[in-house]
Structure formats: structure tokens, C-alpha cells
Design brief:
The protein is 31% helix and 28% strand. By secondary structure, it is an alpha+beta fold.
């Protein structure tokens, strides 16, 4: 099915509207490199911010709304469940799509290739707007002797061609500069910052140059996305469902509905930006930000039935969190230390917990979430959603 039949706008049309002075919304969807980790001021010196300035300079008549939809440390397996809330609700006219690096460019696992392609298809089907995949570089990728080892980049380049998308290939651009002796990697990734993944301002400026080059080339070619009926990769994420736990008809004893935290270790991890409400299992009563009254009650377990081939939990990790026992079809599959990430990025961060993949999508499975809270100190579990995907119909229902 071609763009002329599916109504998807191309970059030529976007450029025309920008020159005319339309109001346009651009969403930057990805991980920490899209947010701007290690930039001196992410809202001014990240690649995302610099691209925004390029738009304002190139199209001074247009009215721009630039949306930051980036959560550090996350990939497409969480992103696929965030598309509706964090991207499509803004009615974007253009989306820059990250996640290639966080999905691990050295690998080409079926699950993540499928979740990434699902994001692309969802944006094209429901957003009807152009998408520009960006391949952002770590220091290692910028200095590789051969880019062929980046299996995911190769797949995502083929995917972009398959869907008629322009790309912002920072990896290729920085690698070419390095080979010519024109890239000072210590300036891009200052050793004193002890981070070979996230660049500083100089590196982000180079990011922006190559992403902008990709955009301009797409405009010149009038890249207009197409929507093939057949997926390029396995359609493991053809259908996705984000079931918000606070919306369930009934919660177990010892659970309540509350608001997400408004304090976090870093702004892109701030749960109140990504979650509307959370289901809280607790053995206490909260009296203040860090003041609790221990009650000693034992919250009940939450049990649901679902169909799908993969399942993931999304919520919050805080310094006040306890542990969560997860059972699948009656068997223990893991015990999650829900405080771990929030303790590193005190006082809170997100909780992103893939539970299982490769499940039989034709049969009904059970999922049990059992809080394992301390018997001597106040603790809580904060969960927002149970996320299920599969190649066929997916569903989640209470017992």
C-alpha cells in the first residue's frame, strides 16, 4: 500500500507546511541520548534541542511545538507500549525515533527487531506522519574499524528503506570523521566525565549536524513513507496492550490508587512525566515525603489471565520500595527488587521489568504479582501497567 492510498504525509509536505508558517509538532522519542544525558544543559545543548533550533532558524514563519518523549535506559520493548500516550497524543507532524543503540546495535534479536518495527508501523498507521530513525553513536561505535558488526543498524537501515524513511545516521557520519582524523573523541566524550556512551556538548552538536543532514536529504528526495502489508521482521508485536492496573475493577486487599512520584534522580526518569496513576501495595501509611507509619499488614497478590507471547511490567522504583514475587502459570519466574533502580537514582526512577517472551500466544496464561514487603519497616510497591504483546489477539482479564 503506497502513501497516496494510506494518507501518510511525506517530508516534502512537512517542508512545504513549515515554509508556509503552519503550527507543527515534532516529537523526539527515544532514550538518554535523545534526552541529552551528559549535556551541560539538555534543553539547550542536546541534539534534540539543537535540532529544534535548526527548525526555528530554517523555518522562521512556522510555529513549533517540540516534545521530549525520551526515557534514559529504555529501548523499544518499553517504547512500543508508550507510543499512544507519549507520542501520538500530541498529534505529531514528524517523529525522530531513537532506541537503536539501547536495543544493542551489536545484536539483532527477534523480539527487539519486532518491537521497533511495531513502533514504526504504529506511527505510520495512526500518526500518518513521517518518521526519521536516528542511529546515535557511542564512542565505541564512532571508532569501529568496520560498521558491519552493527547488526541492528544494518537491519534498521533495511527497515527504513522498506518503509520509505529518511534516516539520521550519526554512527556512519562520526565514524567517517574519525577515520579521516577529523573527530576528536576526547572532545566529544570527555574522559573526565567517565562516560563513553553519552557525549558532551561538542558531541551532541555533531549528532545534530548528521541528523539534520538526514532530514534535509529526506526533504530533497521527498521521502514519503509507505506501509507494506507484510512485516519485514517477525510480527511478534503486531498487537500490543498496556493494561493500567489502577483501571482494573478491583485491587487486592492492601492496595490503593495513588499518584506517581514528583521527585527523581534525573528528569528523564521522573515518573510523573510518564505515568498518570499507580497502584500501590503497602504495609504502612505514608505521613510525609519520607515519613511512614508501619502497620505490618500483608498486601494480597494481584492475579490476572492474559493472552500474548510477551509480558512486561511498568511502574516506579523508589527508595521505599520492597520486593515483588512474580509467578507465571503457577511457577516462580523472578523476584524483583523494586527499590534497586530508585536507590541508584534516589529517591525514585522508573521500573521497567520484562517478565517473559516466547510464550505460546494461543493459550491463556496466568500472571501473579505478590508483594514481599519487609516485616519490620515500611515499604511499598508502585505498579502502573501490565503490558502484553503478541502476533495475534492479546488480552488481559481479572480472575
Amino acid at each position: 500500500m503506497g502513501a497516496e492510498k494510506n494518507g501518510i504525509c511525506g517530508l516534502g509536505e512537512f517542508d512545504r507546511r513549515a515554509k508556509k508558517g503552519d503550527a507543527l509538532t515534532v516529537v523526539f522519542f527515544g532514550g538518554s541520548l535523545t534526552w541529552g544525558a551528559n549535556a551541560s544543559d539538555p534543553n539547550r545543548t542536546s541534539y534534540r534541542a539543537l535540532i529544534g533550533e535548526k527548525f526555528r532558524s530554517e523555518y522562521p514563519r512556522a510555529r513549533w511545538k517540540l516534545i521530549d518523549a525520551a526515557i534514559g535506559g529504555t529501548g523499544s520493548q518499553l517504547g512500543v507500549y508508550r507510543v499512544e500516550r507519549d507520542v501520538l497524543r500530541y498529534k505529531p507532524d514528524l517523529v525522530f525515533l531513537d532506541f537503536s543503540l539501547n536495543d544493542n546495535m551489536m545484536t539483532d534479536t527477534e523480539e527487539t527487531l519486532s518491537s521497533y518495527e511495531s513502533i514504526v508501523r504504529t506511527l505510520l498507521v495512526k500518526g500518518k506522519c513521517p518518521v526519521i530513525p536516528v542511529f546515535l553513536a557511542s564512542r565505541e561505535y564512532a571508532t569501529l574499524p568496520d560498521l558491519k558488526v552493527l547488526k541492528r543498524r544494518s537491519n534498521h537501515l533495511k527497515l527504513a528503506k522498506y518503509y520509505g524513511l529518511a534516516v539520521g545516521d550519526v554512527v556512519k557520519g562520526m565514524n567517517a570523521l574519525y577515520r579521516k582524523g577529523r573527530l576528536d573523541v576526547d572532545a566529544a566524550w570527555p574522559p573526565e566525565l567517565f562516560d563513553s556512551c553519552h557525549p558532551h556538548d561538542f558531541g551532541y552538536a555533531i549528532y545534530a549536524d548528521f541528523v539534520w543532514k538526514g532530514y534535509q536529504e529526506g526533504v530533497e528526495r521527498n521521502c514519503t513513507p509507505v506501509l507494506p502489508e507484510k512485516w519485514m521482521n517477525k510480527p511478534l508485536y503486531r498487537n500490543v496492550l498496556r493494561c493500567r492496573i489502577p483501571d482494573l475493577k478491583a485491587l487486592p486487599e492492601g492496595w490503593r490508587i495513588g499518584l506517581p512520584e514528583t521527585r527523581a534522580g534525573t528528569f528523564d526518569f521522573l515518573s510523573s512525566r510518564w505515568l498518570d496513576r499507580v497502584a500501590i501495595a503497602e504495609n504502612c501509611v505514608r505521613k510525609g515525603f519520607d515519613k511512614f507509619e508501619w502497620k505490618g499488614n500483608v498486601p494480597g497478590g494481584l492475579k490476572v489471565r492474559f493472552r500474548g507471547s510477551s509480558v512486561l511490567l511498568f511502574g516506579e522504583s523508589t527508595v521505599f520500595s520492597g520486593k515483588l514475587l512474580v509467578k507465571m502459570d503457577g511457577r516462580k519466574v523472578m523476584e524483583i527488587d523494586a527499590a534497586k533502580f530508585g536507590t541508584i537514582f534516589t529517591p525514585s526512577a522508573y521500573l521497567n521489568a520484562p517478565i517473559a517472551s516466547g510464550l505460546d500466544p494461543e493459550r491463556e496464561h496466568t500472571l501473579e504479582l505478590i508483594p514481599k514487603l519487609s516485616k519490620t519497616k515500611p515499604q511499598q510497591i508502585h505498579l502502573e501497567s501490565i503490558c502484553v504483546a503478541g502476533p495475534g489477539p492479546v488480552e488481559i482479564r481479572m480472575f
